[in-house]
Amino acid sequence: MKISLIITTFNWPESLLLVLESIRHQSLMPDEIIIADDGSNESTRKLISSFNKQFDLNILHSWQEDNGFRVAKSRNKAILKSSGDYIILIDGDMVLDPRFVKDHIDCSEPGYFIQGSRVLLSKKETQKALSEKNINFSFFSSELKNRKNSIRSKTLSLIFSNKKNHLRGIKSCNMAFYREDCININGFNNDFEGWGREDSEFVVRMMNSGMKRKNIRFCAIQYHLWHDENNRESLKINNLMLEAAINKKLLWCENGIKSMKDNEG
Q1: Is the model's pLDDT at 9 over the cut of 80?
Q2: What is the CATH number of domain 3-264?
Q3: For the chain, what is the total number of helices (H) and then of strands (E)?
Q4: Is this model's pTM higher than 0.90 or not?
């Protein structure tokens, strides 16, 4: 099974550097890495170019013009460029445990998309990590929030992972699915602009199409670098689009991957 790892980013190359370093140390490497760039400046392009020259990581740079927060469209552009059978989504502020990719592949299952969890680093610990270029975190690292999420255990994972369809805790910063299942619902909805709910609406259509949610715990561990909260002024409109997908039992969005492919073609 060919694996595409897609990373969203916007103008934070210092964080992206740590993420790419953590990918470089994976026990199982993805077949391709695609940076879903929502309009970063030249410094991000230079970082990606430098990494590609130094290491054999097969990083593709999917860039779109900076026209506000358009992460749904940015992910769709990256998915269009992907060639993998299976897609793992993370954000550009998520430092990965060395077995992150392998854990996701081991947990993959036809008919399911995967929702993982995260460990939150404090502001102080994040600043230290960025300064020292540290990617080595564990249960014993200082100033972690929801520390239990840093425990990796096959036994605990078997006990606490579950298959339950609901929207609570949906986070596309640690999500995986078969590419075909994503294409079948037309990907993310490009109408979502501004922070929030584009991932939940995507999952609603996934579940409406017959896909089931698999929640994995105590594996596929990632550490979230602290940052200021995103602007939430678009949340009211985005909540209405999410409610429409729920109430109308939508399986498809009109403004998704297909419209982008048609425009490019």
Answers
A1: yes
A2: 3.90.550.10
A3: 10, 11
A4: yes
